[in-house]
Specification:
By secondary structure, the protein is an alpha+beta fold. 54% of the residues lie in helices and 7% in strands. The two termini are 23 Å apart.
Length: 202
């Protein structure tokens, strides 16, 4: 397998999952600052975004939830996806909330403010994004007040929250207490430490 990634991007969560399952893989770094038309990644994934996973048979998977789900289900020994229907449903629910709400609705607005037409528009985008991310963190904090991991046992959902937490400081969205404790537990995992080191983020 080959993971196309950018250091510290959402692909970091998939990098963590790859380390957790223990299967051999390669890394190919993508410079997201280059124009889409100039990226070699576009030849592999026309969406030209990370994460992109090229499987051993040459087929390509895109989108964080789909890649994480496939990795977990195809490597069941890693126990990153529950066996029971309720556990599976809650895992997907938590993962989607992190990706679709915390990341895409919240942090993406803050990142995207640099493309605003005016400084006032940029500040408005940042404020909206931070507000959404703060409210999403509060919801996740409530979930984590009752358990160590988002869906009960450690799972792919926790990897999705982890990459978002990595953006907390730079995006000026503080992590509430239980989310911060989850972040600390994640950073203590050998798989997370390995992924951070390989991406130059340790």
């Amino acid at each position: 397998m080959k993971l196309f990634y950018s250091p510290g991007a959402c692909s970091l969560g998939i990098h963590v999952v790859l380390e957790e399952i223990g299967a051999p893989y390669e890394l190919e770094k993508v410079d997201l600052s280059t124009p889409v038309s100039d990226r070699a990644l576009t030849q592999v994934n026309p969406k030209s975004k990370v994460p992109t996973l090229q499987r051993d048979d040459g087929s390509v998977l895109t989108e964080f939830p789909a890649i994480a789900y496939w990795l977990a289900r195809s490597h069941p020994a890693a126990k990153l996806f529950p066996d029971d229907l309720e556990g599976q449903t809650r895992t997907l629910e938590a993962l989607d909330f992190c990706v679709a709400s915390l990341h895409m609705q919240g942090f993406s607005r803050v990142f995207g403010a640099r493309r605003a037409a005016t400084p006032a528009e940029a500040e408005a985008m940042k404020a909206t994004g931070r507000d959404i991310a703060t409210r999403a963190f509060a919801r996740l904090d409530d979930m984590l007040a009752r358990r160590e991991w988002l869906a009960g046992d450690y799972s792919i959902a926790d990897a999705s929250l982890f990459y978002c937490c990595c953006w907390s400081g730079m995006m000026e969205v503080p992590m509430p207490a239980h989310v911060a404790a989850h972040f600390a537990r994640m950073k203590a995992r050998p798989a997370v430490q390995a992924a951070l080191k390989q991406e130059g983020l340790a």
